[in-house]
Amino acid sequence: MNNENTNTPAVFLRRRGKIRVRKYKNPERPHLKFYISFREAGRTRRMFFETEKQAKAEADFRNREREQSGVEHAEFPTAWRVMAQNAMEQLKPFNKTIDDATRHYVAYLKATERSCTAEDLVDQLLKAKKSDGVGELQLYNLKSRLGYFADQFDGRLVATITTREIDDWLRSLEVGPQTRNHYRSALLSAFNFARRAGYAVENPVEGSGKAKVISGPPGILSVDQAASLLVNAAAPILPYFAIGLFSGLRRKEIERLDWSEIDFESNLIEVKAAKAKTAQRRLVKIEPNLREWLLPHRQHKGPVTPKQEAFLELFHSARRDAGITEWPDNALRHSFASYHLAHFKNAASTALELGHYNASITFAHYRELVKPKEATRYWKLKPVGRSRKIVPLVAR
């Protein structure tokens, strides 16, 4: 048996009729005596046989196939039909079709063609976040966490990174569950950015596992740590730390605060609606010790927080010189809330300063985190002269 393609018009006209066995004679192939002609994959094909019995068996098979499945099916190559059937069987449990699979894979191939490396993705994300006005401290955390990711997947196109690989990497980090989830959150943001930019079809981080975190009390600074931080802070960043420790403003609220919004006459800090997380204006009391920390640095207007280029260096320098190796999440605000509630014993008042809607939430989160004696020391932290020594730490 042999076969060949042909575009002979006479044969083409017979493509819709019944396939018949015909005699064949060719001096160059004397062993082949019969042939059949049929359409397959849009072209006319011939199959050649040594005996009439062989030719008739093949013709009967193809004629039956035409009757059962139609001419279009019969003209579809057998190998392609098998491939399509296998694909449909594999897609069936997912309720998807070959068209669905084709669209998904074509989108993946296109994304791969225009994808970028992990390192390029991190660089682009950080530039976009900075342009969007994200705070310098948040940018630092993103850069730190995503930097490890870029190193691990050096040279890889982000469109080719899988959920399994993300899971393996997150679990390989020698960090606690909460920190691991912070890394996952940073990656989730990065891959959402990649998807919007067309660098990836989907976000593999969405399917990755989150570490189980056993809830504990908010992390705060001890009185000694707060005192050491204030003593070692350079003048440009001292107001940032003092306001965070003794007024409870959120990090972004301090970063957006202007000196013109600090009223030393009425002893109030105005948090404007446009600068507040809750989009609600509020007035925060300036406690006596906070006033003493701020007065030497008082200005009529201008940002309270140093410019982005200098902020991180000043922040980490003060923390390092103060000997604070572990910086609790949202440490300044949580410290204020804990010491304020323990000292003034008024959850409603503490909630008002924090901008909380519900005093019961404040009470539940910050009650009994510190002892009253320590709270008294905290609110007596005041600067003395240019050396900025702390009064209450001399004698307890």
Q: Considering the protein shown, what is the CATH homologous superfamily of the largest domain?
A: Intergrase catalytic core
Shape estimate: rod-shaped
Low-confidence stretches: 7-15, 392-396
Strand segment count: 9
Give an account of the 3D structure.
Helix content is 51%, strand content 9%. It is an alpha+beta fold and 396 residues long. It has 3 domains: 2-76, no CATH class; 118-207, Orthogonal Bundle (DNA polymerase, domain 1); 223-393, Intergrase catalytic core (hpI Integrase, Chain A, Orthogonal Bundle). The strands form 3 sheets. It has a 4-stranded antiparallel sheet. Strands 5-6-7 form a 3-stranded antiparallel sheet. β5 (262-263) and β6 form a beta hairpin. α7 packs across α9, α11 packs across α15 and α15 packs across α18 (372-378). Mean pLDDT is 83; it is low at 7-15 and 392-396.
Write the layout of secondary structure elements.
Layout: E1 2-6, H1 9-13, E2 22-23, E3 34-40, E4 43-49, H2 52-69, H3 71-74, H4 78-91, H5 98-113, H6 118-131, H7 136-152, H8 163-172, H9 177-197, H10 223-232, H11 238-247, H12 251-255, E5 262-263, E6 268-271, E7 282-285, H13 288-294, H14 308-321, H15 331-344, H16 347-354, H17 359-366, H18 372-378, E8 383-384, E9 389-390
Antiparallel strand pairs: 1-4, 2-3, 3-4, 5-6, 6-7, 8-9
